């Protein structure tokens, strides 16, 4: 069984800053991490490989600095890693990104057929949850999104059974392979890398593919040219000018504190007092 896991190197959301003049995200000096949701997909892929045998290939699209994230995946136990890096990919939105990744996965499948593709449910920088389904659509794969548990994979029958979380509860779904799965957070716990994998990651040479290596002949579908999405503005919500009112409680009984609170609330919302009185 061959599983491909799509990951993304993203800015640490806890330290993202917005430029006060240009209103764009300031990435300089901001540490990067593997998108947390992608780690749940990686762990699930590794578990299936350990259980059923096979190979796990990790792929991402980004600048050369993303090699660090791919080597981290190797240290967790992934078998191979590929970085899509090319100037023609710059400025890609979710449509262009899914095109590039799908093209690369199809190219991988020419020499080693792909049985499953795993993605995180979304990334913490874009929050669109569109790339995974976009890849599935382009590769004509069945897609299972927001999966909380992979119950069973039967390679003989070419079937997979998963638990998908929905607004109304949990759906138990079955479909045929090959398929694409997006995993939810909390579906598993990321393992620690073994010493052998850590040493292998340090020596590992990540394969770097440009658009030609990925089998892309029409570059108009990549990068800014292939991205119909336009981000007009990015901004931080303004701080509220209203300050919290402080009610002093020293030397007051609980009843007196409650009366003071209600008096303050009713003073600002007189209709509320009338509604309660009715």
UniProtKB/TrEMBL annotation:
Family matches, as Gene3D superfamilies: HUPs (3.40.50.620)
UniProt keyword Transferase present: no
Superkingdom to which the source organism belongs: Bacteria
Single GO MF annotation: electron transfer activity
InterPro entries: ET-Flavoprotein_bsu_CS, ETF_a/b_N, ETF_b, ETF_beta_N, Rossmann-like_a/b/a_fold
Keywords attached to this entry: Electron transport, Transport
Database matches in PROSITE patterns: ETF_BETA
UniProt keyword Metal-binding present: no
Record-linked SMART domains: ETF (SM00893)
Domain Electron transfer flavoprotein alpha/beta-subunit N-terminal: 22-218
Pfam families: ETF (PF01012)
UniProt record similarity statement: Belongs to the ETF beta-subunit/FixA family.
Function in brief: May play a role in a redox process involved in nitrogen fixation.
Quaternary structure and interacting proteins, as annotated: FixA and FixB form a heterodimer.
Official protein name in the record: Protein FixA
Originating species: Magnetospirillum gryphiswaldense
């Amino acid at each position: 069984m061959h599983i491909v896991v799509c990951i993304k190197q993203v800015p640490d959301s806890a330290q993202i800053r917005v430029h006060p003049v240009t209103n764009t995200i300031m990435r300089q000096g901001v540490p990067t991490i593997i998108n947390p949701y992608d780690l749940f997909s990686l762990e699930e892929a590794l578990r299936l490989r350990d259980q059923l045998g096979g190979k796990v290939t990790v792929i991402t699209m980004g600048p050369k600095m993303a090699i660090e994230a791919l080597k981290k995946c190797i240290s967790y136990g992934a078998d191979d890693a590929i970085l899509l890096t090319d100037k023609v990919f710059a400025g890609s939105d979710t449509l262009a990104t899914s095109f590039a990744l799908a093209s690369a996965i199809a190219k991988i499948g020419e020499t080693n057929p792909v049985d499953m593709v795993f993605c995180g449910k979304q990334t913490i920088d874009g929050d669109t949850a569109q790339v995974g389904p976009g890849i599935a659509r382009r590769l004509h794969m069945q897609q299972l999104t927001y999966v909380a548990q992979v119950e069973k994979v039967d390679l003989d029958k070419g079937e997979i059974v998963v638990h998908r979380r929905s607004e109304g509860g949990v759906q138990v779904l079955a479909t045929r392979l090959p398929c694409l799965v997006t995993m939810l957070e909390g579906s598993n716990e990321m393992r620690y890398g073994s010493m052998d994998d850590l040493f292998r990651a340090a020596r590992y040479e990540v394969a770097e593919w440009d658009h030609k290596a990925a089998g892309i002949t029409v570059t108009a579908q990549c990068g800014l040219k292939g991205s119909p999405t336009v981000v007009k503005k990015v901004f931080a919500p303004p701080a509220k000018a209203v300050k919290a009112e402080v009610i002093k409680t020293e030397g007051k009984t609980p009843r007196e504190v409650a009366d003071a609170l209600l008096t303050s609330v009713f003073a600002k919302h007189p209709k509320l007092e009338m509604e309660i009185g009715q």
